[in-house]
Write a structure and sequence with these properties.
264 residues; alpha/beta; 2-enoyl-CoA Hydratase, Chain A, domain 1; 3-stranded mixed β-sheet
Length: 264
């Protein structure tokens, strides 16, 4: 299958998935997220692949969901039932990547923002370039962090750091992300890909069945309650988008000014 924004190559038990919107910041559109969902599902029944690397355009992993995407207006104008269905694209994409049986590695260059963080924490490992920066600014736009990513971040960083990155919402450089537990390794070069490939090759050399069994056991142990604590986040997000603060946050983002929230 061919894709507009995503390329897939396989070799020696390793698959490499690259996504590129065609502009530097590499923001996630609804169409791109649907392609990433389809690519993840394409590995169903694949008994050959041991490791999958997911990476962006080489400059940035992704600037997160594109707030200028035409689908956003369609979502805002929709009724609640249709809106809830539209909002499922992001969480379905993340869940599809989390559910993969091979080991998954995010190779993160440049900015990893919002939905990019949500996608990366759904994978098994995160390798960052030394210049990578992590940022969860949803709250500054009047939104809650969703896509069922909060418990995944808690699994990695604990509750305090999860609240810090999601509520205080400062930019976190790679060195801090490493100390927090958000990522596992930092490449000493400008690109994270070579180090990610080094790990993928080690995984590819391991026997496939134990790789999958160990991954499944670790995930069940760490994530058994994740769905129970996040199944409502689509509805929480939908509620937040009905608020005056959300409208103000989006206007402020587009106008490039600080928002003025009033709790309405």
């Amino acid at each position: 299958m061919s894709y507009k924004y995503v390329t897939l190559e396989k070799n020696n038990r390793i698959a490499i998935v690259r996504f590129d919107r065609g502009h530097e910041m590499n923001a996630l559109s609804v169409d791109l997220m649907k392609e990433l969902l389809e690519v993840a599902r394409s590995f169903e029944g694949d008994t050959e692949t041991n490791a999958i690397i997911l990476t962006g355009n080489g400059k940035n992993f992704t600037a997160g969901f594109d707030l200028k995407d035409a689908a956003l207006k369609e979502r805002m104008d929709a009724g609640m039932m249709d809106k809830r269905e539209m909002l499922r694209v992001g969480p379905r994409m993340c869940q599809a990547w989390e559910d993969l049986e091979p080991m998954t590695i995010a190779a993160i260059d440049g900015y990893c923002i919002g939905g990019g963080v949500a996608l990366s924490v759904a994978l098994d490992m995160r390798i960052a370039s030394k210049g990578a920066q992590f940022y969860v600014p949803e709250i500054k736009n009047g939104m809650n962090m969703s896509w069922q990513s909060v418990p995944r971040m808690v699994n990695l960083m604990g509750p305090a750091r999860t609240k810090q990155i999601s509520i205080i919402a400062d930019i976190v450089p790679a060195t801090e992300a490493l100390s927090w537990g958000l990522i596992e390794e930092i490449s000493q070069t400008e690109s994270a890909f070579d180090l990610a490939l080094e790990y993928a090759r080690k995984i590819a050399d391991r026997p496939p069945l134990p790789v999958r069994m160990i991954k499944q056991g670790a995930n069940v142990a760490a994530k058994a309650l994740n769905h129970a604590t996040s199944y409502m986040d689509i509805d929480q997000y939908a509620l937040a988008t009905e608020s005056d603060d959300y409208a103000e946050g989006i206007r402020a983002f587009i106008d490039k000014r600080p928002p003025e929230f009033k709790g309405r």
